[in-house]
Amino acid sequence: MTADLTGESPFWIIKREKLDQLLLNESLNNGVQIIRPLLIEKIIKKNDKWEITCNNKIKYISEFLVIADGSQSEWAGYFNLGPRKPKFANTISLRLKGLGEIPRDAVRFEFGFIKYGFAWAFPLRESLNIGLGTFINNGLLENQAINKKVIRSFGFDDFSNTPISKKLRIWNGFHSINGDKVLAVGDAASLCDPFLAEGIRPSLISSFYAAGYIDQCLSGKVDDLNFYTKKINNIWGRSMAWGRRIAQVFYRFPRTGYQLGIKRKTAPKRIAQILSGEMSYEDIAKRVIRRLLTKSGS
């Protein structure tokens, strides 16, 4: 299914390393100190402040803690932030030189090659980012024949690039992601999209609000960080709850998912609107429900 997307720029495509460098530079310009390499060995509460012991034998004292160590976070569980039993999506990604058969001004999503999963291709100036993921049977990504079939469908015959494998901690229910002077953001907080495994946007959103609520605590406007969890559950969790429901139907019963969603001409536009934040999964689900009710009543 192909569709033109309206608007000057439905969403931005940027190299991850450039985004990381931009965020790092902005942090440094605003007084952040980067200490690396550094391994945290112990964190304890002492005199209402956090005492952090690292492998350099220096103890750091902090008023607040932000847990941002990604999908493999050990500290989120240590502080009882997020679900007790995180749920993961297995993904692989690679970057290939050239654009293959993908137009420079187009993105492509595939929902038929990977059982219980998806594939996508995002073009850069002179290369293509390809990703594959599955939410149910993680062993499917180990099938090299299927992986090559997907890559070939994008217009490539060179399979020499080594893919990067990752386990992404996806949204899995409404949970507290803050404690007493501690909170989790991004993948560590299990905020990754349970339908498309997109994690950068929730990382940016949660980090923005985390900074805001910590600032309010420091200035005495609020007494704790509880509003942070409420905010993220409201602006992100409500949509992800519907995203998880949609994923459970779509990936387990792909024929039904195709008939209700992908088959429709508006499907590419809806995916772009979800990725850009213009629409939520709740909006999509309500449209599908109305469509089903209309059909059943006719």
From TrEMBL:
<dbReference type="GO" id="GO:0102067">
    <property type="term" value="F:geranylgeranyl diphosphate reductase activity"/>
</dbReference>
<dbReference type="InterPro" id="IPR050407">
    <property type="entry name" value="Geranylgeranyl_reductase"/>
</dbReference>
<keyword id="KW-0560">Oxidoreductase</keyword>
<protein>
    <submittedName>
        <fullName>Geranylgeranyl reductase</fullName>
        <ecNumber>1.3.1.83</ecNumber>
    </submittedName>
</protein>
<dbReference type="InterPro" id="IPR036188">
    <property type="entry name" value="FAD/NAD-bd_sf"/>
</dbReference>
